[in-house]
Amino acid sequence: MFESAEIGHAVDDDTYKAAVPALRQALLQAQYELKEQGGFPVIVLINGIEGAGKGETVKLLSEWMDPRLIEVRTFDQQTDEELAHPPAWRYWRQLPAKGRIGVFFGNWYSQMIQGRVHGRFKDAVLDQAIGEAERLEQMLCDEGALIFKFWFHLSKHQMKHRLKTLKDDPLHSWRISPLDWQQSKTYDRFVRYGERVLRRTSREYAPWHVIEGQDSNYRSLAFGNILLEGLQARLKAPARGVQQATPPLGSSLDERTVLDALDLTHALSKADYHQQLIQEQARLATLLRDKRMRRHALVAVFEGNDAAGKGGAIRRVAAALDPRQYHIVSIAAPTQEELAQPYLWRFWRHIPAKGQFTVFDRSWYGRVLVERVEGFCEPVDWLRAYSEINDFEQQLTEAGIVVVKFWLAIDKQTQLERFNEREETPFKRYKITEDDWRNREKWDDYRAAVGDMVDRTSTEIAPWTLVEANDKRWARVKVLRTLNDALEKAFSKHD
Amino acid sequence: MFESAEIGHAVDDDTYKAAVPALRQALLQAQYELKEQGGFPVIVLINGIEGAGKGETVKLLSEWMDPRLIEVRTFDQQTDEELAHPPAWRYWRQLPAKGRIGVFFGNWYSQMIQGRVHGRFKDAVLDQAIGEAERLEQMLCDEGALIFKFWFHLSKHQMKHRLKTLKDDPLHSWRISPLDWQQSKTYDRFVRYGERVLRRTSREYAPWHVIEGQDSNYRSLAFGNILLEGLQARLKAPARGVQQATPPLGSSLDERTVLDALDLTHALSKADYHQQLIQEQARLATLLRDKRMRRHALVAVFEGNDAAGKGGAIRRVAAALDPRQYHIVSIAAPTQEELAQPYLWRFWRHIPAKGQFTVFDRSWYGRVLVERVEGFCEPVDWLRAYSEINDFEQQLTEAGIVVVKFWLAIDKQTQLERFNEREETPFKRYKITEDDWRNREKWDDYRAAVGDMVDRTSTEIAPWTLVEANDKRWARVKVLRTLNDALEKAFSKHD
């Protein structure tokens, strides 16, 4: 894999000087087209052997192109806020917006290769990390990102020589930290695991580019050309890649969904309700104060039919708690900043830190519900959303976050009664809009979407709870009890 | 100041129960109007004696109103990201957007009172903190925020009794941390310094409300009523308070400004330029790697005439450095999220952490330049901006941030030549737009605005550097040299 990057590629100074002006101008031109189009973000991952010119090349990039449109990010030591979130959170918060270029040093590949080289974990964990990187990049590309992955290479002999030269040069000696030197000893391991990673993660949508780092002229031109060609090709491509024909999900033979299995007659008497509500609220308050909560976080997702009582259920959950213990995030139309990012970005930014509890009033399931039914996105987008969401929730649960998802279900007649009541009560009128009536006409489409959503995203780690919500009391108690059971189950693993 | 909050206010249960439903409905109504209008943010500061029902009252608020539109924030221990920024940064990042309510526990008042009570500083520092709080609140109100400041009070006797009751109640005993108990001993100091703070910071635009906390019925109704009246009054007020007549800045007798004192014939030969540029670039690279940099950060602000060469100067600064060492922030039209916040919010979010360097390509001075000249804001807004900006920069410099501000000045003829050159060079055409020509017609207005800006915001802690930029070489070297001198001066204070 690295063979052709150890053969002493070089470009003489005259050739280099002749080539650079046109390359620069073309890169700058591409950068401005990118900015004007604002159509996609560019992510440049920088990896490779120490001393192979990674830093110099990125510096050159900032000189050649407009540095105001480039963000260079280094992921060293995690801050305590980063440590309190799932590992991917730090990358999500630094993603470049559409029209901009983000250069990532110390990215997910650096983390996984160094972890393996220094023996912090075995191949199985490395392969897990590889799988996660693949899914992340696939998702980013599906969302429109253009990803370049560069590996700057040196042979062992070249590296030793290069590090010695740098060390002897007073202008550069500060660059070499003790850790870097140590790497000279671990070169073999670094290359071996690097090879494994490159082999597994070089995919058609985001291939690796290996560049020999010995000769700076060669290195710079090779890097610039790859970047330019990739940018130009993408800028010329149609706004959206050719839509792949997506296989249909398959229609149900009898149109029965999980919703049909619900017994919507469930109800609680007023007395039972008050007793059970208070009991479950006290239980939730106690669980959230439990010291085992410090190793977890809680995410509650509320989806449901219009007028199913999401707001009321959320208020009963909140009423159990000190308001300092939770945040409620209402998902509405995305802002400009959110639209300039991949779909899941707007949810990642609200993921709670350890010890915290966040309620999502509507959620990332909007893509497979309202966006699917209303045609706000292409079928290929909501079809891939199922697995992206499952990946996302897996990352949350692996970081100790307990994910509880509610679908509050009512029947069509109950919805009609509640809509009418809202229109008749001055105080509730703000709750009902034209949209609600329009959505109601698509009752069956939503029903099918909910069925698919539950089938495809109700997982052992983050199951859906269907809540019979014709009776509000029943629904509120069931919501609280489910949250409590989920927390207790998570805590019990510590015993 | 607290006398009338120690007289045993109470409301009987029947009266309370009769009053609550209407209050709740009115609060909810006001909250939805606030959301619909989206016109201003509401900030509720919660302070007072331990055990006076602060937490219970906020909890009640979340029950009475829609908790999805309320954000409750607690400012305890600072995270390491917060510690690496100026003290006010943590408040700025948590400000509620327009249309929402932010409830702040552990806010700036808690910090200053507790610091003084526990003897971490003396009255002089307390008074400084008071002054900062006043300026912050004045600015927030000028930007449209509605601020409520609540002090929940108990007499010493009431407090002791209340803490004992809470301690004996198994359901509540967890609430009392050792520190809180300790406060019972420091009650006198807490009240003394609290009084000092309230006296000094109760202003017409954000008065304090002292509420006796003994009786929960009284406390809840008093709190709810104050909130309701304040919200309703503000919702009924005209979109913008009556514009105060603002005194004019005074016109200059001879129309001479600081810009007239510049000698725009300064120039560097190519040879001198190359030698000096490399020298200053190396100096900057060395200074930023100096270990004293860890206690500082660097902010460079670039403003100037169109075509004065800001971009080129910034590139020469960037070229000196490893791209991991700096961020460049280009200020363009604000996003929706930025528009929903006070003006300075969009800059606070980019302020560098300790050890970092941020370049602002255009900046917070937009308000007193383009917004003033183009009439994008009212005179009262840009007139108050001078002191707000001075406060802002003082907060930065007090946190160790070195603030360097450049105005790149060219004459009108030079601008014309550069505009023409841009139009004639295909490669530079993206740099010139209709706006540039329009701005040029307002040359004299901009000139006056720059004169006022320099007069009013060139301070010892953050002086303006006027850069003679007819000669680009001269300008670039001067920019680099000024940055270096500023850093060296800051570092020299450690010797």
TrEMBL record, chains A, B:
InterPro entries: P-loop_NTPase, PolyP_AMP_Tfrase, PPK2-related. Gene3D superfamilies: P-loop containing nucleotide triphosphate hydrolases. It comes from the Bacteria. Residues 11-234, 268-491 form the Polyphosphate kinase-2-related domain. PANTHER family: POLYPHOSPHATE:AMP PHOSPHOTRANSFERASE (PTHR34383:SF3), POLYPHOSPHATE:AMP PHOSPHOTRANSFERASE-RELATED (PTHR34383). NCBIfam families: poly_P_AMP_trns. This is Polyphosphate:AMP phosphotransferase. It comes from Pseudomonas quercus.
